[in-house]
Structures are given as C-alpha cells and as structure tokens.
Specification:
The chain is α+β, with helices and mostly antiparallel strands. It has three domains: 93 residues, Orthogonal Bundle (Helix Hairpins), CATH 1.10.287.1260; 49 residues, SH3 type barrels, CATH 2.30.30; 81 residues, Alpha-Beta Plaits, CATH 3.30.70.100. The protein is built from eight helices and ten strands. The strands form three sheets. Strands 4-3-2-1-5 form a five-stranded antiparallel β-sheet. A hairpin with a 2-residue loop joins β1 and β2. α2 runs antiparallel to α3 and α7 crosses α8. The chain is elongated and about 115 Å long. It starts with a helix and ends in a 22-residue tail after the last helix.
Length: 282
C-alpha cells in the first residue's frame, strides 16, 4: 500500500509530471497532425493519380483499382508513422500484425483469392469496362472490376456480381475485343434443290446489305451433306455494333428469298418402312 502511494506521489510530483505530460502531449499532437496531414496527402495523391491516368486515356477500371490501392497503402503508412511518433515499437507491432494477418488470411482465403484474381484481371486486362463478355457461364457488359468481384449487366438489365476467382479461373470470351465480327449462319436446302441457284440467291441478299463489309469478303460454301438437308454456310463480316441487327435481318431475308424461289428448307425427318410377313397359319 505504501509503495503504491509512493508511486502515485512520484507521478504527481510537479517536477516529474510536468516534463512527462509535456512530452506525451507533444507526441500526441504530433501523432494527430501526422494522421490529419497524412489523410489529406493520401486523398490528394489518389486524386492526382486519377487525373493523370485519365489524361493518359488509361482504362477507367485500372484507374479506380490502382487509386484505391494507393490510398490504402498510404493510410497504412500514415498509421504506422503516427504510432512511431508516440514511441510505440512498430517492429513488434508489424510482427504481431503479420501473425494476425496470417491467421486472418487462412480464415479468409476465398476473399484473398478473389483479391489476387482481381489484381490479375486488372493488370493483364482480358477485358475492360464496357466490354461484352462471357465468363463463369455468365454473359453481360462489364460495369466494373472491383477488388473482390466483377459486376456484369445482362442485356435484360440484370446486374450480376461474380467473384473474381471464378472469372479468372474459367475461359473468358470477350465479344468486344475486336472491331469486326463474323456472322456464322447455316441454311439447309433439300437434296433435290439446285445448289448453285441457292448460292446465287443468298449472294444476292448479301450484296444488298450495305452493313456487310467488303474486307474480309463474305464466305459462302457448302458445309455438309446432312441427314435431311444440304447445309450451306454463310459467313459475312460486319462491324461489332451491327452484329445482332445484321444477323437477324439476314436470317429473315435469306429465308424469304429461298422460299420465294421455290427452294425447300427441310426439317429433320425419317422414312419408316414397315414389312409385313405372312404368318404360317394364314
């Protein structure tokens, strides 16, 4: 009891308490200033990076991702600097933080895999915001690539959030990567129909469509002798934005042209032969 009273009396000694309070007060003020100024600098640097990268016409997805990463790293550095100004041994803190981070990492391994996949998607850039892709069995326009997931918007205006690990693990089909796309159509005619005539009719429809590109030239070839039809492949090239409209129009016009010329568009059919055998009693 007496030792406690002596300790309290020692701390309350003006000659000792004054310098101690002054020292800790200055340290606390320095830590607060470091945090406030550090936050302002972190925001300013992140904003400067966004402006600079935007002027360089960088991918908006990459800009958002890197600016967020820069801001988080700077905040961590600011906090560590503030703790150091208070006299806290940051080396030991980093060791404890690393051990805790390992435990948290094992518990959140799925989230970390999503983060790693997001980094790979951003840096390797198999697609960007605005591209129409198919990934993880889902098709849609890329709205954004976030730290843990990718947001897609489907043509019927559904918003789908897909974990980055699923996107990166599966094959990615980017329908917007090239300016030109080829339309692959197959039309079947009967075995008794005139193949050169059918090709001429299809070629006439293609020549009337102004949205079809001259280079690469459209391809028209006999594809297969099917079970019920002779299949003709039609492969014109169009601008990416015209793909669906031209495809729909060609399906309608070529069908109408073949039917108007009397050419059949057969459907799968089977000939069934029934053989009757007289019984021995007859």
């Amino acid at each position: 009891m007496e030792s406690l009273q002596q300790l309290i009396a020692t701390w309350l000694d003006p000659e000792l308490a004054g310098p101690l309070l002054l020292d800790w007060g200055l340290r606390l003020m320095a830590a607060i200033l470091i945090i406030v100024i550090g936050l302002l600098i972190a925001r300013a640097l992140a904003a400067w990076f966004r402006r600079t990268a935007g002027k360089a016409n960088a991918d908006p997805t990459l800009i958002r991702f890197l600016s967020s990463l820069i801001y988080i790293v700077l905040i961590v550095l600011v906090v560590l600097t503030a703790m150091s100004s208070l006299g806290i041994n940051t080396t030991n803190f980093l060791a404890v933080f690393g051990a805790a981070g390992l435990a948290v990492g094992l518990a959140l391994k799925d989230s970390l895999s999503n983060f790693a996949a997001g980094v790979m998607l951003v840096f390797f850039r198999p697609f960007k915001s605005g591209d129409y892709i198919e990934a993880a069995g889902i098709s849609g326009t890329v709205e954004s690539i976030r730290i843990f997931n990718t947001v897609l918007k489907t043509p019927d205006n559904r918003v789908i959030t897909v974990p980055n690990s699923l996107v990166y693990a599966d094959p990615i089909t980017n329908f917007s990567a090239e300016d030109k796309r080829r339309i692959d159509l197959v039309f079947g005619i009967g075995y008794d129909d005139d193949i050169p005539r059918a090709k001429a009719l299809i070629q006439g429809v293609l020549s009337q469509e102004e949205r079809i590109l001259d280079e690469p030239a459209p391809v028209l070839l006999l594809m297969e002798l099917g079970e019920s039809s002779v299949d003709i492949a039609v492969r014109p090239w169009v601008e990416r934005a015209d793909y669906w409209a031209v495809r729909s129009d060609l399906l309608e016009r070529i069908k109408q042209a073949l039917e108007a010329a009397g050419l059949s568009i057969p459907y799968p059919q089977r000939d069934l032969h029934i053989v009757k055998q007289a019984s021995e009693d007859a």
